[in-house]
Amino acid sequence: QVQLVESGGGLVQAGGSLRLSCAASGSIVSFAAMGWYRQPPGRQRELVATITKSGYLNYADSMKGRVTISRDTAKNMVYLQMNSLEPEDTAVYYCAAIDSGLYWGEGTLVTVSL
């Protein structure tokens, strides 16, 4: 079972940027995909972005053009660069390893202020 640890969250003003990191305890290419999800206050967890084993990228429409998912397979790291952040992007952001099941990190809180 993989352990995922997110970092990089925090408080940022609207229009700002953050880069989230996810450190995996095992090889990220052993999974079908890696992804980032988020859970805004009072709402369900939702997809932000995924990257498959072969490198195919997928983004949620709500964040397309403002986020970039990337990875470093040598370091077993997955990143989420977020730009032009809006208060509506306030959420706990989770790293996920996707295979026959979903494995989650503990999450990192992103708060976007006006």
Notes on the protein architecture:
This protein starts with a strand and ends with a strand. 30% of the residues are buried. The chain contains no helices and eleven strands. A hairpin with a 4-residue loop joins strand 7 and strand 8. The model has no long low-confidence stretch (mean pLDDT 96). With 114 residues, it is mainly beta. The chain is 0% helix and 54% strand. The strands form two sheets. Strands 2, 4, 5, 6, 9, 10 and 11 form a seven-stranded mixed sheet that branches. Strands 1-3-8-7 form a four-stranded antiparallel sheet, with no helix packed on it.
Structure described in brief:
This protein has no helices and 11 strands. With 114 residues, it is mainly β. Strands 2, 4, 5, 6, 9, 10 and 11 form a 7-stranded mixed β-sheet that branches. A 4-stranded antiparallel β-sheet has the order 1-3-8-7, with no helix packed on it.
Q: What characteristic shape results from the CA principal axes?
A: globular
Largest sheet: 7 strands, mixed
Assembly state here? single chain
- Helix fraction bin: under 10%
Rg over CA atoms, rounded to whole Å, is 13 Å
Compute the number of strand runs: 11
Order of helices and strands: EEEEEEEEEEE
- Low-confidence blocks of residues: none
Query: Distance between the terminal alpha carbons, to the nearest Å?
Result: 40 Å
Number of helices: 0
Give the DSSP E fraction (strand runs of 2 or more residues): over 45%
Mean pLDDT over all positions: 96
How does the helix and strand content classify structurally?
mainly beta
